[in-house]
# Entry
Amino acid sequence: MLHYGALKVATKRQKECAGAALQDVHARVCGLIEEYSPDAMAVENVFTALNMRTALRLAEMRGVILLAAAQHGVVVYSYAPREVKASVAGHGHADKRQMQLMVRALLSMNETPEPSDAADALAVALCHLQTEKARRRFGLPDQGSSVKPRALRATLGSTGLPNEIRPGGTTRGGLPRIVSTR
# Structure
């Protein structure tokens, strides 16, 4: 881990103009992309069960982040909140505190990441790393790949599982392997 944190836009700045927070987020994300030159970015989908006002604000911020990534040619991967929670905490209903503790443990951090939004961002990154590891291990196409689902089924076999995995729970080596990307 190179860097983590959360951007807090001052209330005074937010009152200056309607787009001030969006402008600050865009500038910060562009600065981070230029500083660290990432190969990819992972973002969380907007959770639509929130109240409408919050969902719209999150969608605006997400759009600014996607814009910054596109302007710098960075590929973006998107994950559902439950997928992130399941990947990091083992189940899709983990609360914020559980996520913070799991992120701390998985990254061998001395302190619990604060604020919880920063821990959430780290959890999305961990989810992406785990998903990419599984994708590469099993030779699955990239999320942005042009392979069609029918061609993918033909590649993987009729069960939808890579040929090395047997539905009976054993692999060629005889021992069961469990891989979770959720």
Helices lie at 11-16, 20-36, 52-71, 81-89, 96-106, 116-137, 149-156. Residues 85 and 94 are 6 Å apart (CA to CA). Residues 80-164+177-182 form one domain.
